[in-house]
Amino acid sequence: MPAPPPIGNRVRKLREAHGNISQATLGDAVGVTRHTIIAIEQGKYSPSLESAFRIARFFGVGVEDVFSWHG
Amino acid sequence: MTISWSDMSVREKSAWAMGALVMAMAAWYFGRLGPAAWQPGMKLPVGTLIAYLFLTIAGSIAVQVMLAIANRGEARTLADEREASATARAVSWAGHLLTLVLVGGLLWFMAHRDGVMLFHSMFAGLLASQTVVHLGTAWLLRRGF
């Protein structure tokens, strides 16, 4: 397995805090597939800057409230 | 790394299936040719080549139609950023491999002056690069990157 990217995220927690919305719903809102949301939550994929902003905007928070740097 | 067909996106399924198809058809093609085809002075196996192309095209259409039927909604969507990035990386790997095989084949041709062997090496390079594109994409989508 490759070293996970040094970027953590709270996407799963934010989904749960917002009425446990589905990964598919979030994916549709952001413009990615459900599988990409799963990969982001599992730390297997770091989204593009545009998608990071879209995710943050969807939850009504700032990007740094969703993503954090662990490097 | 676990592989479960049910939790794959349609593009990952497609990548695994097409990789398997390309490898199976390559094994069939070179199996039919046999080791004698790699000897200098042999003729190009046109009939086997045409059969290979027909079977590969038919197999690809069958695979894609089955995947589209089984994943109706998802199959209509475009690749997202993760899928496009995985494919771009795999294509880059395949390009390097194809370049190596092509250069090797040309050096072989310069030494032996046998066009049929050059064709076989080029064709093997194309099949190998296609395998890398499909299986590389599937592996990246499964493993993460």
Task: Kindly describe this structure.
The complex is a heterodimer of chains A (about 70) and B (about 140). Chain A is mostly helical and about 70 residues long. Helices cover about 55% and strands about 10% of the residues of chain A. The longest helix of chain A has 11 residues, at about 50-60. Chain B has one domain (about 10-145). In chain B, about 80% of the residues lie in helices and about 0% in strands. Chain B has helices at about 10-35, 45-70, 70-75, 80-110, 115-145. The interface between A and B is medium-sized, with 18 and 15 residues.
Q: What's this entry about, in short?
A:
The complex is a heterodimer of chains A (71) and B (145). Chain A is mainly alpha-helical. Helices cover 54% and strands 8% of the residues of chain A.
Observed structural traits:
heterodimer; A: 71 residues; mainly alpha; two-stranded antiparallel ribbon; 5 helices; 54% helix; globular; B: 145 residues; 79% helix
List the helices and strands and how they pair.
The complex is a heterodimer of chains A (71) and B (145).
Chain A lengths: L6 E3 L1 H7 L5 H8 L3 H8 L7 H11 L3 H4 E3 L2
Antiparallel strand pairs in A: 1-2
Chain B lengths: L9 H24 L12 H25 L1 H4 L5 H32 L2 H29 L2
Helix pairs in contact in B: 1-2, 1-5, 4-5
